[in-house]
Amino acid sequence: MSSTRFDTRLTDFNRRMDAAVEVLSREYGGIRAGRATVSLLDPIKVDAYGAIMPLSQVATVGAPEPRLLTVQVWDKGMVKAVEKSIRDSDLGLNPMIEGQLLRIPLPPMTEQRRQELAKLAAKYAEDAKVSVRNVRREGMEFLKKAEKDGDISEDELHRLSDEMQTMTDEHVKKIDEMVVHKQKEIMHV
After folding, report:
1. One biological-process term from Gene Ontology (predicted)?
2. Rounded to two decimals, what is the model's pTM?
């Protein structure tokens, strides 16, 4: 097997690490630091029609005021399920039902709430790091098997392993920078 084929495989592992960083970025969009944004409800999943679905597939989310979100549920039968999903989320929100419309006033950000959100940001970052490390572990296993099977030399194994580690370190550093930035944003009064 040629080393270019392994370089292509490393590119695939890099893409998967990039995806973990992108997921973290989307999750951070859902953590509010001050004003209402529709992305705040992006992480919420609803038990709908026998499946777990993103909120965006059963309702329309709006932010008509800086401290208010609205959720217009499309199917009257799904209102209670949507309300329960929002209430049970880690976001600390209490929706009020008005027909098929849920009004969600955003509570003022207390110091305690800011600390909770900062911890949530750290948890999301740790999950992203675990994903990156899992990709690294899978890549290292792939390379060791290739060396054992005689597809690459020991020198090539070391070179590719070093590249895999460098990729991992770069992604972990990016995640660390993201969490520091998000926590500063959350704690800023």
Report:
1. cytoplasmic translational termination
2. 0.69
- One domain, residues 154 and 123: yes
Of 105, 138, 159, the one marking the end of a domain is: 105
Distance CA 180, CA 125 (A): 10
Q: Using one digit for the tens of pLDDT, what is the confidence trace for 90-146?
A: 777 889 999 999 999 887 778 887 888 899 899 999 999 999 999 999 999 999 999
Burial class (CB in 10 A: 0-12, 13-18, 19+), 27: buried
Most confident of 28-32, 72-76, 85-89, 176-180: 176-180
CB contact set of 60 (below 8 Å; sequence gap of 6+):
71, 72, 74
Number of domains, the chain: 2
CA distances from 51 to 3, 47, 73, 79, 110 (A): 43, 6, 16, 15, 35
- Please state, rounded to an integer, the average pLDDT across all residues of the chain: 88
Among 27, 20, 11, 13, smallest CA distance to 120 is for 27
Domain that includes residue 115, residue range:
3-28+111-187
* CA-wise closest residue to 10 among 136, 145, 152, 148: 136
Rounded-to-integer distance, Cα 20 and Cα 125, Å: 10
d(CA 30, CA 32): 6
